[in-house]
Prior knowledge:
Radius of gyration: 15 Å
Number of domains: 1
Strand content: 15-25%
Distance between the termini: 22 Å
CATH topology: Rossmann fold
Order of helices and strands: EHEHEHEHHE
CATH class: Alpha Beta
CATH superfamily: HUPs
Helix content: 40-55%
Mean pLDDT: 86
Low-confidence stretches: none
Largest sheet: 5 strands, parallel
Shape: globular
Amino acid sequence: xxxxxxIANDGSEGGFRALTCALGLAHRxxxxxxxxxxxxxxxxxxxxxxxxxDKLEENHRFEQVIAQAQFRARSAHVKLGTxxxxxxxVPSIIDFVERRGFDLLVVGYMGHSALYNRLIGxxxxxxxxxxxxxxxxxx
Length: 139
């Protein structure tokens, strides 16, 4: 059924709940599992030093996310490919899914207020809407 999964993990609690679920499914189905972290495109920096500082912060943050994910994957006896891309979360993830031919995208749900969701929406909602494959939302 599913042979190639992608988990989107931003380092949040929801991202790690999704990782836990994806590891269990990948192990049971003997599926290939990859994880993507998206370095959000920063606000318009005033200087090149701000760009360098933002990049270093993101690299450090995702190093920890990747290390923890790899540890969990080894414990679950699952090989995990990791990818860090720069851009805006939704279009970057959708593009990655399309180019790499994933058949399942696993994302965490991060609850917001009804007003927030009505006015702004969420990345999860947009991924469900635009993904060219099945999407599993882990709550």
